[in-house]
Amino acid sequence: MTDRPVTRFAPSPTGFLHIGGARTALFNWLFAKKHGGTMLLRIEDTDRARSTDEATAAILDGLSWLELGWEGDPVSQYERAARHREVAEELLASGAAYRCYATPDELAEMREKAKAEKRPPRYDGRWRDRDPSEAPEGRPFAIRLKAPQEGETIVRDKVQGDVRFPNKDLDDFIILRSDGNPTYMLAVVVDDHDMGVTHIVRGDDHLTNAARQSLIYQAMEWDVPVMAHIPLIHGPDGAKLSKRHGALGVEAYRAMGYLPQALRNYLVRLGWSHGDDEMMSLDQMIEWFALEDINKGAARFDFKKLEALNGQYMRATDSDELTGALLRTLPHLPGGPELAERLDEQKTGQLRAAMPGLKERAKTLVELVDAAEFIVAKRPLPLDEKADQLLDDMARNLLSDLQPKLEAVNDWNASTLEQAVRGFAEENEVKLGKVAQPLRAALTGRAVSPGVFDVMLVLGQEETLARLSDQTGAD
């Protein structure tokens, strides 16, 4: 490919940036990056009743979080309505379109007749070749494209292959409504042409639109962009993706504690793959991505696979970097704002120190927030049910005897702490677990945590001994 491609992502701001839209944006972005091109952003906000500024902001925020940057300012489709009308008038003047004066009652009658004859509803072309002098005075009109009635329109698609549409099935569709507003079909073509879009990558629910839009390109004698219609995402059961499957906004995945790079990696493999590679860097995605390698069949969304992949990313991420990612994301996580309030400079340092152990047991940032609770917990620590069971009378007596040993530790590090606790267990002729498990319960309030020696190291000697005293009653 010699010319630099221009792709576009064109969401409607009627809600969040859903997961299918995020994948479409990712595919556009990767293709543009691979070939040294650019991705543009167009907000298709012509549905004024449903379009909101809040939804637009959520879409921009979601793309930014996923690090899918676009070139220039976002384009508002609504603000370009005058240009769309101008092209409709050009098509009218060239004879490629015509005024249609059919009334709503007449159109309803056409639909009913088609239904009775068990055929798809089609406009019957009654104003296609009539002389303009026959126009009823003062009656509003729509402008329809004069579509070819014979032959076929071929969409040469990079994913679907050549898809053929009989022209008789495309009918003379409306490009400008009787109220003067352009239709989506016209607006998309005009915007893509004016923005210099060379490649259109979008969901395969737009495949029939592609045939009709090709007719507008041809009528205007414009080059038809290269098209790639990607399959939709289904749930694990093969049904259309719904909220129970994961049809949520990107911000919901951030709130569930997924890392943007992990979600990006998961999305790129929904319908596209590179051999058996599971984890791949952004540079690898860009290098390997090809439209022709996108599957024709629908991809299946699987939360378990996403969660497992996210866990891999967390373990592979540098502990300081992961701590930074967690701190930045706290405002969006359940329990995150409360944790942030209690993280002073000392506690933040303890969080950084604990991260190597914390990340080994967590699959999401939400789990990290939960696991880090022991660092900021106020004394005396509340015990969960299993921790309470571990701290029976025998265990508390053992911990009471252990305290002087820990008080005597001069160099407070993981090695000396393990040596002290192991030595104590041997002296008392008990297995290490009989000491380590209640010790963990007393220090964290839980039966599961990072390694108990790591916990002691993070808390420090003073806090460790204070928490033990709370549970043993020793001074």
Automatic annotation (TrEMBL):
Enzyme Commission designation: 6.1.1.17
Basic and acidic residues bias spans: 113-137
N-terminal signal peptide: none
Keyword Aminoacyl-tRNA synthetase part of the UniProt annotation: yes
Binding-site positions, ATP: K243
One annotated Gene Ontology cellular component of this protein: cytosol
Protein name according to UniProt: Glutamate--tRNA ligase
Organism, as annotated: Notoacmeibacter marinus
